[in-house]
Amino acid sequence: MRELIRIAGYLGPYRRDAIMGVILVIFECSFEMVIPALMADIIDVGVATRDVSFIMRQGAYMAVCALLALATGLIYARFAARAAYGLGARLRAAEYECVQDYSFANLDRFDASSLVTRMTTDVTVIQNALNAGFRPMVRGPVMLAMGLGFAIFLNARLAIVFLCVAPVMALGMAAIVRHVGPLYGVLQQTVDKLNNVVQEMLTAVRAVKAYVRGDYECEQFRKVNEGLAKTSERTFRLAVLNMPVLYTSMYTATTLIMWFGGQMILSGSLQVGELTGFLSYVLQILNSLIMISNVFLLLTRSLASVHRICEVLDEHVDLASPLDALTEVHDGSIVFEDVSFKYRADAQEHVLEHIELAIPAGSTVGILGGTGSGKTTLVQLVPRLYDATEGRVLVGGEDVRRYDLAALRDAVSIVLQQNVLFSGTVRDNLRWGAPKATTEELLDACRAARVDEFLDRLPGGLDYDVGQGGVNVSGGQKQRLCIARALLKHPKIIIFDDSTSAVDMATEADIRRSLAALTGVTKLIIAQRVNSVMDADMIVVLDEGHVHAVGTHDELLAHDEIYREIYESQVHTVQEGGER
């Protein structure tokens, strides 16, 4: 119930539409409930006394009530649609904004496919539940209360028959809802799996074709698709049992009322018009119960979606700016004070342990190490993409936790290991680094990152559409565009996470010369090739999450065994390649 109230709070300006919808449904039910009483009078008074004028007058009243009920129903539909689709739009926006505030640690807790499902399918389920269920949700209880009142007013003895049947029907419905509820949660999780398979295949479609794995991917999709079909079948097979239960109860009640009502007519204690009117009210009551049962099923399914959406909205953001946040980074100096880190609080081992490192502002630092040594994790602590589990990370002489997140990240450019370009032109992508950059500034950054070598060959140059994810540029071109984007920020610290691995050595050397010309900028370069960092002011060698050695190229070559092995293996490989 708390989660339902939480979701209802997102109606915002559409709350007035929802209230107007409730009022209109109550008026609609009131007009409809008057009609059986008027019909009973027509039979018992007008027909019995052959009073044509009375029949015509009552008939006119019935027609007016029917028209008023129709009019209020039509007006209600407009308000209900606005409330339902307004709520859906606000929920999607709220989820999207929450995800934008997530840290990397928060994002690690959700699969991308699950977040997509929660913003689309789950919101649609709630939207449809409100749009389709709002009217019966209000109409059912109102008609039930009014119908019972009118029925008891017409004949209390006959009402007892219905009151005996209703609890049996309610128990049957409760049992169905109790068993179906958990299945809806399983159903949405199965939708997550389906979306995950589709997303993975579309993302890696070129690899699928290159390795001729289309049949394998089709088989994977078939399995998860059949799983969704079976889960849906099992869920709705139980859900549809509500209709046999309801109709059995309804026909049983109607038969008993007609039986006892007929006996009462024969004994003279009930008139035909009263029985007709009473049956009309009974049918209204039973229809209201059918509506209520359908609402329960809608609510049962939407509750699973409500819970999943609330998980996104209620996710505690691990990283946030402090109240008295610093808004300016003085320089690019970086200090790691006894820093240890692990991705999960319950993880047994740290990814980084007891890192002690001081990097002066404006220096160039190379970071080497084997796969899994913690190189990427180390640099991600600098712009506070993650928080250190133990110890402190200082940038510009201040703990990164004291900075405003936006200010800190504006001062740090990072070229990620996985290069990401977005739908749009080259110009649009570069301006992620500086939204107001002029064309000349864009071209300067392109020259520094050696984008100018291929920019002229792209149709339209800066206005060339790179497509989603940069699918129509090569890996090396994508890396150089990402480097140019990072340079446009004019940061105090710039991080390259193995970001020249797809370019040739000559181009890499040109890029290194351009970076060397940048003054006052601290450069952290993660690399696999020694020649990428051998000219750095400082080289850090990581080994299994520890700082193994720190020094210049010559110092490490003379005194560090791991660095010497890396260097000699690469030099030996290059020499062999040259001999061939």
From TrEMBL:
GO cellular component, one term: plasma membrane
TM region(s), chain numbering: 21-40, 60-81, 137-154, 160-177, 244-266, 278-299
Domain ABC transmembrane type-1, first and last residues per copy: 19-301
Keywords: ATP-binding, Cell membrane, Membrane, Nucleotide-binding, Transmembrane, Transmembrane helix, Transport
Protein name per its UniProtKB record: ABC transporter ATP-binding protein/permease
PROSITE patterns: ABC_TM1F, ABC_TRANSPORTER_1, ABC_TRANSPORTER_2
Organism listed in the record: Enorma phocaeensis
GO MF term set: ABC-type oligopeptide transporter activity; ATP binding; ATP hydrolysis activity
Membrane topology of the entry: Multi-pass membrane protein
Family: Belongs to the ABC transporter superfamily. Siderophore-Fe(3+) uptake transporter (SIUT) (TC 3.A.1.21) family.
ABC transporter domain mapped to chain residues: 334-569
PANTHER family xrefs: ATP-BINDING CASSETTE SUB-FAMILY B MEMBER 10, MITOCHONDRIAL (PTHR43394:SF1), ATP-DEPENDENT PERMEASE MDL1, MITOCHONDRIAL (PTHR43394)
Subcellular location: Cell inner membrane
InterPro entries tied to this protein: AAA+_ATPase, ABC1_TM_dom, ABC1_TM_sf, ABC_transporter-like_ATP-bd, ABC_transporter-like_CS, P-loop_NTPase, Type_1_exporter
Chief location bin: membrane
